[in-house]
């Protein structure tokens, strides 16, 4: 199965890269396309990310009595799961899905060679077709986590087995996102294709995604420190107590949390885009299409030079003794005479030629 999207961008996705090169390609991709990518991406993601952040703030503010009284939560654990909690969860899931769809839509457009002409409206047209497929994938992953969590009924060993399973399946699930966006028309086909791609390359996929995750966390920590200092300056973070947090939430804090939520999804682009470079490496290793692309480019150059399409070997079909030789540069001794024809006896002094005899640039 080959993805129907070409790889016509300046940065190729289908290329053999190691773990570090995947991260480097991701960061270079973001840097080179930062203005267009962030403008279009945030135009789609920022509104729903802001709504999700505000819903979280609203949930905390309306849960003040419960959070200030831990015993009340212990007496009635379900009391905290009210409408505000449900709204915040739904908006959080939708924000993640829309963000992944927008990132995938940009990759699709970029691979078509449309970089430089991707406006928010163009990206939205590509994004909206991906929202439902990625939402279905997200719900399937959530259901799988819930079902496999039943193994936790086995004390200790069950929890260890569950965590090990999640770690093992994470690269395949991540690559499934890229396959669903670029290749497969159904979730089942995307999962089967991702399993084939990751098989034998689990270490690479896991390492590349882990490294991207580490960089994402570092950027998130940096943003958290900045927003924390801003909160202190606003007077919202001084003497902060988790159980008193809802009573300390102000308009300034709500605005700060909203900005932080939007910036967080901008940082998530590192992980969202790294998945497509991982997929490109795995697909290239399995399908090996870049060799054909390189041959097409070479053939186009040959056609442009006026030669026949099949004449890729140039003078290879001519006898060596009849090929025209360029005169030697000025200051260099003339070329030695042509070697004797087949069947003639080679003089002793010529027999010492070649690599060992110094015939290949021994003067150097």
| Overall geometry | globular
Which radius of gyration do the C-alpha atoms yield? 30 Å
Class by alpha and beta content: mainly alpha
Could you tell me the mean pLDDT? 79
Distance between the termini: 51 Å
- Tell me the series of helices and strands, N- to C-terminal: HHHHHHHHHHHHHHH
Stretches where pLDDT is under 50 for at least 5 consecutive residues are: 237-247, 307-324, 341-364
Which range does the strand content fall in? under 5%
Helical residue percent? Answer: 55-70%
Tell me about the largest β-sheet.
none
Compute the number of strand runs. 0
Number of helices: 15
Structure explained in plain terms:
The protein is mainly α and about 375 residues long. Helix content is about 65%, strand content about 0%. It contains 15 helices and no strands. Helix 1 crosses helix 9 (about 200-235), helix 7 (about 155-180) packs across helix 9 (about 200-235) and helix 9 (about 200-235) packs antiparallel against helix 12. The longest helix is centred in the middle third of the chain and has 32 residues, at about 200-235. The model is unreliable at about 235-245, about 305-325 and about 340-364 (pLDDT under 50).
């Amino acid at each position: 199965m080959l993805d129907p999207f070409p790889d016509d961008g300046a940065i190729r996705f289908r290329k053999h890269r190691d773990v570090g090169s995947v991260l480097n390609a991701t960061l270079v991709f973001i840097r080179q396309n930062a203005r267009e990518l962030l403008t279009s991406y945030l135009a789609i993601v920022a509104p729903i990310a802001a709504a999700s952040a505000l819903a979280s703030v609203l949930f905390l503010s309306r849960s003040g009595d419960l959070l200030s009284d831990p015993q009340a939560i212990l007496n009635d654990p379900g009391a905290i799961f009210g409408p505000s909690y449900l709204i915040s969860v739904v908006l959080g899931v939708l924000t993640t899905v829309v963000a992944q769809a927008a990132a995938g839509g940009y990759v699709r457009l970029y691979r078509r060679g449309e970089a430089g002409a991707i406006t928010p409206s163009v990206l939205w047209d590509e994004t909206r077709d991906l929202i439902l497929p990625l939402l279905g994938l997200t719900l399937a992953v959530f259901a799988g986590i819930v079902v496999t969590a039943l193994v936790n009924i086995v004390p200790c060993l069950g929890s260890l087995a569950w965590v090990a399973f999640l770690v093992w399946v994470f690269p395949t699930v991540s690559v499934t996102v890229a396959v669903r966006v670029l290749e497969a028309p159904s979730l089942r086909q995307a999962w089967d294709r991702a399993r084939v791609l990751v098989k034998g390359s689990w270490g690479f996929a896991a390492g590349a995604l882990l490294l991207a995750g580490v960089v994402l966390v570092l950027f998130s920590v940096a943003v958290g420190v900045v927003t924390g200092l801003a909160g202190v300056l606003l007077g919202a973070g001084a003497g902060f107590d988790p159980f008193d947090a809802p009573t300390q939430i102000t308009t300034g804090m709500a605005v700060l949390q909203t900005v932080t939520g939007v910036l967080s999804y901008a940082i998530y682009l590192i992980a969202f885009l790294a998945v497509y470079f991982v997929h490109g490496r795995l697909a290239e290793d399995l399908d090996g299409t870049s060799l054909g692309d390189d041959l097409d480019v070479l053939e186009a150059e040959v056609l442009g030079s006026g030669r026949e399409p099949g004449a890729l070997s140039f003078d290879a079909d001519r006898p060596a003794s009849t090929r025209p030789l360029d005169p030697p540069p000025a200051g260099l001794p003339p070329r030695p005479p042509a070697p004797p024809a087949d069947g003639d006896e080679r003089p002793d002094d010529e027999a010492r030629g070649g690599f060992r005899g110094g015939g290949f640039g021994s003067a150097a």
